[in-house]
Structures are given as structure tokens and as C-alpha cells.
Amino acid sequence: MLGRRGPPGLHSCIRPSLFGLRAPRRGRDAGRGLQVERERGESTVSANLGEDEERWRLALEVAGEGVWDWDLHSGQMYRSPLWSEILGYAPEETATLKWGALLHPDDREEAQRKLSACLSGESPDFVAEFRLCCKNGEYRWMASRARVVARDESGRPGRMIGVYQDIHEARSLSDALQASERLWQFALEGHGDALWDWTLKSGEINVSQTFRAIIGLPADRLLRGNDIWPSRLHPDDVRTTVAAFSAHLAGVRPITEVEFRLRTEDGAYRWVALRGKIMERDRNGKPLRMIGTVRDVHDHYLSAEREMRQQQELARAARLIHVGEMASALAHELNQPLTALRNFSAVALRRLDELGAVGECIRGPLQLIAEQALRAGEIVHRVRGFVRRDGLLTAPIAINGVVTDIVRFMEFEARAHAVQWQLALAEPPLWVQGDQVQLEQVLSNLAKNAIDAMSEVEGERLLRIETRDGADGMVEVVVSDSGGGLAETVREDPFAPFVTTKPDGVGLGLAICRTIIENHGGRMWVERSTRLGTTFCLSLPPPAG
Known about the structure:
By secondary structure, the chain is an alpha+beta fold. It is 44% helix and 23% strand.
């Protein structure tokens, strides 16, 4: 073969039919067929066998396969030259090479186990993939399949033949892809992403353990795509989710990206963020396979939703408080002219008595003026009472939680101004009776003022918030900064409305804060204000009972 004939007896033991090729039966165990061929004459036999062997060899080599023949009695091994070419050896060097010694240590046990099973008759064929050591010391992947073609009367194997093929490039690519996939899976799952792989034709879907953990699926339950979507989708999310999938499957969008609620095994719903992409299509462009990730965003979604509601409530409360406080201030200012109007109209009516009948023509209008002034005063009084006393929705509140919420809300602004927080929160936590939204408004206003006060301070900028037990059973909150202290224009009465040193301020912030605290049954004051900073204090009542 390949420029030389095989070892003596090769043509008599190799069975081309083993590899799907038709050839006359040969072999030492086929005595009856051998006897017939001998009768036809040695010269004819040799010519026919040579032609058959050559055709068989060429067919295998065109297919990229080599041949090996092993005589187990003598130990003689024949390998076609392709074997030595693959491993980088010269043909004459292959005679002394032992297959077992060339095997990669990691492949040796499995390959030899399969060989032993074939030799013992436990397995009809030897089929294996393994790495062999090349002459340069590197390993190459080979695939081999073989069969025992001769056994003695006791069943012991006498001869084995097989083929081999170089699969190094294909196997290396496969290993690289698997390694890449493992790294990709590790990176995604380490980042909190679960994986899914959906075969659209069959509907089968494979999901990672992280995915199963999100919805509480047992590890051994088989799944189909419809078992997850749309059957587990929240009814309100079905339309948008199906639309996102459909747009990508139709080629309108390059990727599927959608957030929806997924029903878990216990019947609850969790928010997840899904990303998916078609990875395989048929020749007509029809999608066959889609893979993607799912991330549990439930806690983040609820947190963002809660913070958005709180911000909206704070903004709404601020607007209402601003409007109410402005109404209160206007009512206070209007009360004096209304009182004067009432008094002057009363004086005018008394003077009409001195004029007698001459003044009766204007008595009616003056009385109407007096009555309307009195009515306006009552309206002003009710407005002030509503602003200062009504509208609270109080409940027991952990004041430490209010403080930590404000720190979280204002963390970005504090960091932007290089302000550091210092919290000294009482333990165990202290509780107060109050309206959480309004208390958050008070503390956020004080914190904002403190940050603004330190904006031009050189050196360390500290914003300290402390909670503590106060006098006569009240709970106190202390907010201190390291700014330059209150300006002279506001130091005498920091809570006076419409007094401010800020170019864009309206002078109602501290006035509103004090009103809120007083409506809670507490009080608010400035403990100190120097060039080293300002400290505001407020006290609140604890829950009843």
C-alpha cells in the first residue's frame, strides 16, 4: 500500500466489507472460500487481490482515512503511511512505536477500556477518540474504529483491523467553542444572569440552574418553550412580551429585550429582564434556535418603583406645603387690613347716627362692607387652621429609617459636593408618631441646606445626623454641618417666611419645616450657629402607649 505492499497476510485478513466496501471474503478463518480460490490458480488470485486491495486503499485515503492491521498472535502491526504522516514520523520509524505509549495520559484509560471490551467480545466494535503524541512532542486528536476479524476455536482474538482519521482541527475547534461557552456561561451567571436555549421547531428549551432557581423549578423537570412563555407571563405583560419576541423573530429588531413578570412555582410573580437572539436559521431564513439570558430584577424594580413613588409624594407634599404655607402667610398679612376694614366700617356706621336722615342712603352699603370684611376674616382663619392643624396621616415610624432613606436619596448630591455623611443613630431604634412623607421633607430640606452651606468651605465637609432620646420623653433629631454658619440677615429668626440669602430661594423652606414639626406636636430650633457650622434640632413625640 502507498508504494509498498502490506505485511504478509494483510490481504488475507482485511475485510473491506467492514467499512462498507464490497470485496471477496478473505481471511485465514474463511477456509472454505480460501480452498476455492486456490483451485483457480495462484496467479489469478494474486492479481485479483492486488486490484481489490488497491481500490480499497484508494477509497479510504480519498476519504481521509488510513488503515491499520494487528496480528495479536505475533504482535505485528501494520499501519498505512498516512498514520506516520499525521504524527510526523518517517514510515520506517513506525515499526517500533507502541500505540498505548503514544496515548495522552488523560485519554489512556478510556481508550484501553474500549479496546479491551472489543477484544473480549463485550463490544462488537472499537470506536474511540484520543490524542496521540507526535514526534515533536505535541498531541493530535485521532478517531479510530475497528473490529476483531479472526478468533480461534476458543474465542480468543487473532486479528483486528481498523481505520483512523485525523480530527485534530475539528476537535480543537469544538473544545475551544465549549471552553468559550463555559466562560461565557460562568461570566453571565456570575453577573446574575440566567441562561436559556430554545429550539423553536421542537419547542424544547434548556435553562440553567440559575433560571430554575428564579422561578423555583425542580432540576429534573423537562421543559418546553410554552411552559415558560407565554404560560407563565403576567396577563398584563403578555402583549408587550409577545410583541418583543415577534419583532425579533420577524427581523424587525436585532435583539429581543423586554421586562416582564414571570409566575413562580408558588404562584407569585417576579420581575425579570430578558435578552435573546436568534443563533440559527434554515436556508429560507426561518429561525431554528434562540438563546439568551434572564436577570432577576424584582427587588431592583420594586425599589425603583418605591423610590419613584416616594419622590412623587415628596414633590407633591412640597408643593402642597408651599402653597399652604404661602396661603398661611398671606392670610396672616391679610388679617390686619381686614380687621382695619371692619373697624373703620363700624366707625362710619356710628358717625351716620350723627347725620340723621341724610346719612341713611349710605348705611346699607357700609353694613355690607362690614359683613363681608367679617366673612373674609373667618375664611382667613379657617385657611390658617387647615394649614397648621389638618391633613396629617400619622403612624408609628422608625426615625432611623427615615434618616437612612434621606441619605440614600441625597447620596449623589452629597458626593457631587464632596460632602461626607456621619450618622449617629440610636440603638435600639427610636420610634415617633408622624407622617413619613412630611418628615422626609423636613430632613431632606435640612440636609440640602447643610450641603449648600458647605459648598464654598475649604477642607473637610461633614454632614452629621444624630437621633437620640430627648427631654420629657420626646425623640430628637440633630442635623449639623461644618459650613460657615447662618448669615446675619437670617440669624435672628431663621424660620421667618420669605427671608433667604439664596439667589433662587423663596424663603419658605425652614418656615415650612417648623410648621410641619409643630403640627406633629413637636418643636424645631437652632442649637448653635458659628463660623464652624450650624446645628438644627427637632423633637417629635413617640407613639402613644
